[in-house]
Amino acid sequence: MKEVEAFKPGLFSGNRVVVSGGTSGIGLSLAKGFAEAGAMVIATGSSESRLAAARAEGVDGLLFQRLDVRDKASVNAFFSGFERLDVLVNCQGVARPGAEWEEETFMDVMDINLSSAMRLSREAFPLLKEAKGSIVNVASMLSYLADETVPAYTASKTGILGLTRALAHKYGRDGVRVNAIAPGYHRTDMTKPLWSVPESERIISDRSALKRWGTTEDLVGPVLFLASPAAAFVTGITLPVDGGYHIG
């Protein structure tokens, strides 16, 4: 992964990293990035099929574990098994276009995308405090823009900005930094209905300042930076990684 080559080899050697929502797409690329930078990584997900597919790749330093981020007891039990934790990446997220206008679906999406980031951060905090570690949340360009088909996704990802700032101030006094990235249009399964259609693929590329879609690997470097000693005095920020789309 060329994005990792930009950093000192073994930058995260000896570190323990958890990537929630790390069995596919963006989360899986981030988990692989930390593993290639020397960390021992546990990536979580709730889909048995995705867990099985990810395990089949057999990446060194990368383990996969089932976790329902909506279940407080499961989250508590998960973190109780750790002796050390240096980085938590909250990458869990879903979108349910159209259906999010229904209350039950709206609340479920909000729980997975926003409430669970608070839930995991709160349970991980004692470990992160001991390690003087960091949290990296995953927001979205819809933290700044809007999409009427996904009101819960838009609201939850906007909420990640505020949660990141609040956690940064709450945890900063104990040496724990909290930041976020805001991905744009990256080629994932979630965005396939757009990039697989030539016209919509072109429209989105043309609005980007870099005139292309992002890849999941484009997000690895920014997250490694935010979690690294190079960002020791950086906290409470959300870094857009969208090729300039949201300013177009």
UniProtKB/TrEMBL annotation:
<dbReference type="InterPro" id="IPR020904">
    <property type="entry name" value="Sc_DH/Rdtase_CS"/>
</dbReference>
<dbReference type="Pfam" id="PF13561">
    <property type="entry name" value="adh_short_C2"/>
</dbReference>
<protein>
    <submittedName>
        <fullName>SDR family oxidoreductase</fullName>
    </submittedName>
</protein>
<comment type="similarity">
    <text>Belongs to the short-chain dehydrogenases/reductases (SDR) family.</text>
</comment>
<dbReference type="InterPro" id="IPR036291">
    <property type="entry name" value="NAD(P)-bd_dom_sf"/>
</dbReference>
<dbReference type="InterPro" id="IPR002347">
    <property type="entry name" value="SDR_fam"/>
</dbReference>
